[in-house]
Amino acid sequence: MENNFIIDNEYLSAAAIEKKHRLETDPSSRTDHMQYMEGMEAITSDVRSEVMAHFDSYDYTRYTAADVRAALERENCTVEDFKALLSPAAEPFLEEMARRARLETSRHFGNTVYMFTPLYIANYCENYCVYCGFNCYNHIRRMKLDMSQIEHEMKVIADSGMEEILILTGESRAKSDVRYIGEACKLARKYFKNVGLEIYPVNTDEYAYLHSCGADYVTVFQETYDNVKYETLHLMGHKRVWPYRFEAQERALMGGMRGVAFSALLGLSDFRKDALATGLHAYYLQRKYPAAEISLSCPRLRPIINNDKINPLDVGERQLCQVLCAYRIFLPFAGITVSSRESAKFRNGIVRIAATKVSAGVSTGIGDHESKYTGKKAQGEEGDEQFEINDSRSLESMYDDMTQEGLQPVLNDYIDV
Amino acid sequence: MENQDKLILGGREFSSRFILGSGKYSMKLIQAAVQDAGAEIITLAVRRANTKEQENILDYIPKGVTLLPNTSGARTAEEAVRIARLARELGCGDFIKIEIMRDTKYLLPDNQATIRATEKLAGEGFVVLPYMYPDLNVARDLVSAGAAAVMPLASPIGSNRGLATRDFIKILIDEIDLPIIVDAGIGKPSQACEAMEMGAAAVMANTALATAGNLTLMASAFRQAIEAGRKAYLSGLGRVLVRGASSSDPLTGFLGE
Question: DSSP letter string over A112-132?
């Protein structure tokens, strides 16, 4: 079964509806997703071909229980072992994988768990990505915060005790240009120790500029590494260009960022192959840039406004746990973030096994932190959410719950050098 | 009887030869760990102390314990120098453990950059304890640069694999006149004991405690192992017979008066 992502709404003009339908039904009306668009920097790198050679040849049905056992017994997990751990043959070994993952996590991170919160500053988007609540054809309340509104949001968040922030925008250069995002980073550095970005991919010089404004960590979700499937999900806009997105982390590191984060959106395509590519993308880039801090996320599809049926299909909690354990065993030193897309129960459990970072006090809407944090009625307008979150715990309750799990919450482990 | 065997670092005397890491377990356990380890020196990451948190790791470290802030997060000598200065501003004192890593996977120290940072910080009056890969030439350069001790790694950080670099650490112990403090990779009290028997001046551990089932019990086990190893070293270890080496028919029997 597949998700039905395609929805119309009554607010679109006849011309817009016609274009939308054409994009959805006629592949020839869509641009070549493997061609860079004007202004997109092309870099020379082997990382993509290395990752995709494994992705293309990965047949997870040929791994056996013996391969999984061997992988779990080996001290340093090889790429082949990683493939075995992601295969269906590893499913009966989930408990053993969790035990090994837990040991690796404790060796590298002790019992610490890091906390952060995302701040969406704009939800305008020029792309038509069929599964995303921000997609340009979805009828939602759009909003872009100005600097005083951003500062207000940051104050509210900082007052809650948070020290690390992840700034997000919809993917619209026209509405949220690099200067605008840079100004937001400068403001963020006044209130937070650590500033990360999750924005549309940009060129190396733009990453360098954003780094100079105070951002030091860049997250880009590849969504799916299956570029054929990708083409059918990202029908219009800059985001459609798959290779430019793939190379974003490398450009960020070339621009001076300290760390980068990787992810596939599990549920869009074959999750085992996507998880393999995500891990290998991080692995090969860290080999090329050994000083880079790397981390992985593992989002699963969630319902969006106007389409509450979207779900992660065959990626159940056991499968997600398997992926996370495999990530941890293969990349013991990597950070692993589990977002509020997952339930409180799942997050409480997974931080004891593999995850090292959780979000708290989360809103994926625009300009609504005060109303969500304090219950105070909003002074101004608010923009709609990108997706429905599952775990709405505040920083305070997350802090307490993590402590209850025997973990040491850490709000800052960063120093600006 | 009072312990006359002191570890001297930066002109300060310490009775304990166990340096305790603090970054991998709950802050609430620090006090108990310090107590059960009998530790007088505790390391902390400046980047963890650099916080607005209500709960600052600095607040958990018992009074009277010497802080050994580290420069983790530094990728260059310049970054390490800046972090050291920040440590001083934060009130962490003049001790600094230099950690410079250009590799996030193994966290192996950059020896060359460490020499440069040591020279700079020793010149600024810091008591510099550089974490290094055990290399005699580098250790000599660190002495010349003004280090107060040398901290060679036993095996990769967090690996709990013990004295993988045993022979090279022994060379440093034999050749370098500064205290040699074995850092990183010590996973069991027996390994700490062996390092001390070899003549290490002190041992540092963090992950070994954090991954133990009972942290404070393990802290006390380390304390005893380090004390035992030290006593064995001071007493002079007995000769170990090597098979075939003790001939009953002397090779020099032919020699005349």
Answer: EEEEEEEEEEE-----EETT-
- Alpha carbons B89 and A163: distance in angstroms, whole number: 20
Transcribe A258-319 into DSSP letters. Answer: SEEEEEE-BTSS-HHHHHHHHHHHHHHHHHHSTT-EEEEE--B---BTTBTT---TT--HHH
Q: Which residues pair with A167 in a beta bridge?
A: A119, A197
Whole-number Å distance between alpha carbons of A396 and A173: 35
pLDDT digits (tens, 9 = 90+) for B147-193: 999 999 999 887 788 999 999 999 999 999 999 999 988 999 999 99
| CA atoms of A389 and A401, how far apart (whole Å) | 18
Are A324 and A353 in contact, with CB atoms under 8 Å apart?
yes
pLDDT bin (cut points 50, 70, 90) of residue A378 is low
Q: Rounded to an integer, what distance in angstroms lies between the CA atom of residue A61 and that of residue A366?
A: 44
> What Cα–Cα distance (Å) separates residue A328 from each residue in A87, A255, B160, B204?
15, 27, 18, 26
Q: Which CATH class is domain A14-410?
A: alpha beta
| CA within 13 Å, CB half, B27 | 20
Q: Is A408 exposed, middle or buried (0-12, 13-18, 19+ CB in 10 A)?
A: buried
Q: A293: closest CA among A181, A398, A194?
A: A194
For residue A373, the Cα-to-chain-centroid distance in whole angstroms is 23
A161 to B103: CB separation less than 8 angstroms, yes or no: no
**Integer angstrom CA distances of residue A234 from A4, A27, A245, A298:** 14, 11, 12, 20
Tens of pLDDT, residue by residue over B90-140, are 888 899 999 999 999 988 999 999 999 999 999 999 999 999 999 999 999
The answer to whether B47 contacts A103, with C-beta atoms less than 8 Å apart, is: no
Which residue, chain included where needed, has tokens 């004007």? A38
Question: A161: left (phi > 0), else alpha (psi -120 to 50), else beta?
Answer: left
Whether B46 and chain A come into contact, CB under 8 Å, resolves to: yes
Spatial distance between the Cα atoms of A338 and A357, rounded to a whole number of angstroms: 6
> A60: closest CA among A70, A51, A52, A68?
A68
Amino acid at B250: P
Which one of the listed residues B97, B170, B188, B231 is annotated catalytic? B97
User: Which residues, in sequence order, are CB contacts of A371 under 8 Å at separation 6+?
Assistant: A377, A378, A382
Residues of A in contact with B205 (CB under 8 A): none
Residue A121 · residue A176 · CB < 8 Å = yes
Alpha-carbon torsion (B139, B142, B144, B149), positive or negative = negative
- B105 carries an active-site annotation: no
Size of interface A-B (CB pairs under 8 A): 87
List pLDDT tens digits, range A169-205: 999 999 999 999 999 999 999 999 999 999 999 999 9
